[in-house]
User: Which sequence fits this backbone?
């Protein structure tokens, strides 16, 4: 029996994670769940955001399903997600977005996979400091050829495995000639190893415009850490928002699957949250585990529940709550 580490998270996290576990159980997943705390719940129970017991469970079980976490605002608190990515070398962040009939999405037939280097660049928070007088702030961006090659190879291998036709590398090498330039040069070299897959490169600001004007030209996007964080949220906006977007953080022997939106404390405990992001993250998890038949069943049930309008949550245009929407999916299973 596979043991899955479960971090329910903060705010709406517990309700949408519990909904997802109900669906996994109904679909026939024979999992054992080890529940551990992180974020505000861990701070209240253990006095720290990431207790050793949580880190041990992630390391031992290798696969984690995680709800949204809140990092307290203020000096001395490092992003929990960044810490986890560095701790377990989760070098690949995988964020798919796909159109679902029955949502408020701006486009139909969107199917874009954003793959982002997850440990380096400006987003990693390396070298952050503020001068003694508080007038000057500084941070350092580090990009290595090895990490760039790893993420671009991951993107091409994913494209090959999923039968995708094109990989687009997003960069700012015209200005950031050292860091973004190294990433682009490395991406070009890796692309030569995959002649059957079309390779395209695009400056990040143009890519943002192109995604708004003609998103269907994109298939797989690969880019550096900060650019990937921004562009993947833009992509989520194409299909109805972050509630429709899951995320996977994948390393060589460990993976964390998560909702990518915030903890929404204003609606916590009110049976209002849409659990779709965690359900889709669980589908990613099942595919990672090569449990494709069950993943397909859950996706079909979710897709039909949204398309039919049966008990949809408010953000999807309905009036149902978390429990009712979850039950609509379970009924289909």
Assistant:
């Amino acid at each position: 029996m596979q043991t899955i580490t479960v971090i329910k998270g903060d705010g709406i996290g517990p309700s949408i994670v519990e909904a997802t576990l109900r669906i996994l159980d109904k679909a026939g997943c024979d999992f054992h769940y080890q529940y551990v705390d992180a974020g505000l719940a861990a701070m209240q129970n253990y006095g720290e955001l990431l207790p050793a017991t949580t880190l041990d469970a992630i390391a031992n079980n290798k696969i984690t399903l995680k709800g949204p976490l809140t990092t307290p605002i203020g000096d001395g608190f490092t992003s929990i997600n960044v810490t986890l990515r560095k701790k377990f070398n989760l070098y690949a962040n995988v964020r798919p977005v796909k159109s679902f009939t029955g949502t408020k999405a701006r486009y139909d037939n969107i199917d874009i996979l954003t793959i982002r280097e997850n440990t380096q660049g400006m987003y990693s928070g390396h070298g952050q400091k503020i001068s003694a007088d508080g007038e000057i702030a500084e941070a350092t961006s580090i990009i290595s050829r090895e990490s760039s090659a790893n993420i671009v190879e991951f993107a091409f291998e994913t494209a090959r495995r999923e039968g995708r036709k094109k990989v687009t590398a997003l960069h700012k090498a015209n200005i950031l000639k050292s860091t973004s330039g190294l990433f682009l040069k490395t991406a070009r070299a890796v692309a030569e190893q995959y002649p059957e897959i079309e390779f395209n490169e695009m400056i990040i600001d143009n890519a943002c415009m192109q995604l708004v004007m003609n998103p269907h030209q994109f298939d797989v996007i690969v880019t550096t850490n900060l650019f990937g964080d921004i562009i993947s949220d833009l992509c989520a906006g194409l299909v109805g928002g972050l509630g429709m977007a899951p995320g996977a953080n994948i390393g060589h022997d460990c993976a964390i699957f998560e909702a990518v939106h915030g903890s929404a404390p204003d609606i916590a405990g009110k049976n209002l949250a849409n659990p779709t992001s965690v359900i889709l993250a669980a589908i990613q998890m099942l595919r990672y585990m090569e449990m494709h038949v069950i993943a397909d069943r859950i996706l079909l049930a979710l897709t039909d529940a949204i398309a039919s309008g049966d008990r949809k949550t408010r953000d999807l245009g309905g009036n149902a709550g978390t429990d009712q929407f979850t039950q609509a999916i379970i009924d289909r299973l």
Q: What stands out?
A: The longest strand covers residues 92-98. Residues 4 and 33 are 5 Å apart (CA to CA).
